[in-house]
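Hi there,

I know you've been waiting on this one. I reran it after we fixed the sequence typo, so this is the corrected version. Both the input and the resulting structure follow.
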Amino acid sequence: MTDRISISNLRIHGYHGVKEAEKSLGQKFHVDIAYTIRRTPDGPDKMDETVCYGAVCDLASQVSQSETFNLIETLADRIAAAILSEFALVQSVEIEIRKPSAPVSHIIDHVGVAVKRTRDD
């Protein structure tokens, strides 16, 4: 049995981007995380049968704070890799990152990227 757990609109702060102002001032990023785990049917109703979404949020925030990336594609990839590395029960993970304050000369809601990683990658 495969379960899908999702986190919507986690807001993290980071110093990611190509422009100097993005690296010095930082900005908000909105992150969606969805991950799958395998559970046994009728398994016990215990925390060790799943992956705590609070811990996943903490890890995503730590990745964002630990390093500065030029591309949000790289940030998304590193968050996905960290989740797969940290949580053995996670079989696949999808990360979507939206950047609402992208420095473009157009009226936009946000720019974004999405990555999907599995243990087989």
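Quick highlight: The two ends are 21 Å apart (CA to CA).

Best,
R. S.
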